[in-house]
Amino acid sequence: MIDEIRITGLGVIDEAQVRPGPGFTALTGETGAGKTIVLTALGLLLGGKVAVSLVRGERALVEGRWRLPGEAVASRRVVEIGGDLDDGDLIITRSVPREGRSRASLGGVSVPVATLTQLADELVAVHGQTDQLRLRRAGPQRLQLDAFAGLPLAAELGEYRKSYRQLGSLVAEREEREGDARARAAEADLLEYGLAEIAALNPQPGEDELLAAEDERLGNVESLTEACLRAQSAISDADGEGADALARLGEAVRALEQAGVHDPTLAELAQRVQEAAALVADVSADIASYTASLEVDPRRLEWVQERRSALSRLSRKYGATTDDVLAWAARSSVRLADLGEDSSRIEFLRAEEGRARIELGRCAGRLSRLRAEAASNLASAVTAELAALAMPDATFEVSVSSRDDPDGLDVDGRRVGYGPDGADDVSFLLAPHRGATPAPIGQGASGGELSRVMLALEVAVAGTAPAPTMVFDEVDAGVGGKAAVEVGRRLLRLSRHTQVIVVTHLPQVAAFADSQIVVAKGDDGRITSSSVELVTGETRRREIARMLAGQDASAHALAQADELLALGAAEVQG
User: What CATH number corresponds to the domain at position 479?
Assistant: First the structure.
């Protein structure tokens, strides 16, 4: 709950401290005194915006302190961002300069303003004239009904949404595959052509490099043969026309062996020369063999060049080398197999989609039945509250219906439309007096009737899903007399479940509050400013009298104030 709000330099408030009580707090004051500035300050702490014209001086500063239970979601989120709680209390600050961007901190940690917005629903539920407009729409009406239904419906709604997402995923994949069928067929044709072209040529790993070497050799047979003959002649002169390498090595061996009898070192050298002569003889034999293999074969050369040309055509299309071409073929075979599975995959998805639709229809049916049961109970509870709010002949109804849709879900024998929250259209209907036909509250209810309907709804829902703090801004607009008394009584009862803060101009409402805070306007001749004060005892009595009389309290107004305060005190004690 809100423990304290400090305001500096905002609107007509120069500096103020607002400390609402744990129960029902009424915020009162003359028109224009600045009651709404307090709510503006609260809005800033919840991530709201403010007009620069409301900033007094160079900067406006708002600080709020919330008392949170240890298990509160807000407490956990503060710890997650690295913030700290002050003896279990959460401190939020918001600084708004006249020029430049505003700054926010949460638990002592600087955070984006959007973080405050995300946390707002965990801290405060604000109801005002805009909420009356919101209550006219179908979406908020369904949310109100679901909140009243409580945990059983929340669990079923979670299962429905899970099935809804699963069905959506199946439909999306099936439509994607069907929509891309032509493009995928064209891709398959290209892959089949490429694989057939490669298979026809049947390239082997590294073949392009081997053929390049062979092409070079076959194209230079004559020069290679001539070089081999010269080398072989130098090593071993077969014709005996001159001294060759082997002959000279033989002479060296003999000379060293003869001298070796006198020095073992020369004998060892003779052995090494003998080994060299054997190696040269081997090389001579290899050169002779290579020379014999060199044959001028124009047909082989032509075949090699044609083969290289064919491989080159593949390389231009599918890869820089033969190995790259083979890698492309391997990948394309896998891709082609995947494309070939499209038809069977689409059929599988259609079957799964059918089963998912059946399951989603079952979930939607269970959800509808829970909502119908909750609708009956909520209607009875709100109708009873309206009777106490000076609308004794009013009837409140909650309609839960569905619309026919041939492409929708099969729910209890009907094909109906559906969405992420089920197949139900929820509508609040009001017959304000006896004999009136119930009509959607957005079409015929007055502002005062809407105020009472909204309050009756909050009272009905409070026992099932209370917010930590509820703030009502002019919720009593259009209400007066006996109805105003009952509004005050209902707000007091609501405060037994949650902290309630009400901005009101009605003394009948303020008299039921556990505590009352008055915003008073002052003027020193130079600048207008407002003060914020908690009133008790005689001061509060006179404030109630002022609200009744619209001027300084008269004896009659004071007597009426005493009656109202006694009525409120009796309700508290009762």
Answer: 3.40.50.300
Domain region containing 283: 207-320
Question: Which tokens is 527 given?
Answer: 């600048």
SS3 (DSSP) at 239: coil
The predicted-structure confidence for 346-360, as pLDDT tens digits, reads as follows: 888 999 999 999 999
Number of domains in the chain: 2
- Stated length of the chain: 574
pTM for the complete prediction? 0.63
Q: Residue 364 has what pLDDT?
A: 96
Does residue 489 lie within any of the structural domains?
yes
Q: Which domain-ending residue is among 259, 287, 320? A: 320
CA-wise closest residue to 449 among 407, 390, 405, 398: 390
Residues 372, 387: Cα–Cα separation, whole Å = 23
CA–CA dist 51, 383 (Å, integer): 40
Burial of 58 (0-12, 13-18, 19+ CB in 10 A): exposed
122, 127, 130, 132 alpha-carbon torsion, rounded to 10° = 120
DSSP state of 112: -
Of 251, 286, 320, the domain-final residue: 320
* Three-state secondary-structure class, residue 157: helix
Q: How do residues 185-237 score in pLDDT, each as one tens digit?
A: 888 889 999 999 999 989 999 988 888 887 777 777 777 777 877 777 777 76
Residue 357 included in any domain: no
Do residues 295 and 221 lie in contact, with contact meaning Cβ atoms separated by under 8 Å? Answer: yes
Same domain, 215 and 118: no
How many other C-beta atoms can be found within 10 angstroms of the C-beta atom of residue 518? Answer: 23
Element (H, E) at 257: helix 245-259
Q: What is d(CA 425, CA 403) in angstroms, rounded to the nearest whole number? A: 8
Cα→Cα distances 181→173, 177, 194, 331, 352, Å: 12, 6, 20, 20, 20
**481, β-bridge pairs:** none
461 part of a folded domain:
no
User: Which pLDDT tens digit goes with each residue over 513-528?
Assistant: 999 999 887 765 455 5
- pLDDT (tens digit, 9 = 90+) per residue, 293-326? 777 677 877 888 888 888 889 889 988 899 998 9
Question: What is the H or E stretch that residue 438 is in?
Answer: none
